[in-house]
Amino acid sequence: MAQPLTDARFVTSAADVKSLGVCHAEVAFVGRSNVGKSSLLNALANQRQLARVSKTPGRTRLINIFLTGADRWIVDLPGYGFALGPAAERATWQKMVEGYLTGRTTLRMVFILVDAEVGPTKLDHQMIDWLRSEGLPHRIVATKADQVKPSKALKQRKDVAADLGLHSADIAWVSAAKGSGIADLRREVAELLNL
Ligand SMILES: Nc1nc2c(ncn2[C@@H]2O[C@H](COP(=O)(O)OP(=O)(O)OP(=O)(O)O)[C@@H](O)[C@H]2O)c(=O)[nH]1
Ligand SMILES: [Mg+2]
Question: What is the number of domains present in the chain?
Answer without folding.
Answer: 1
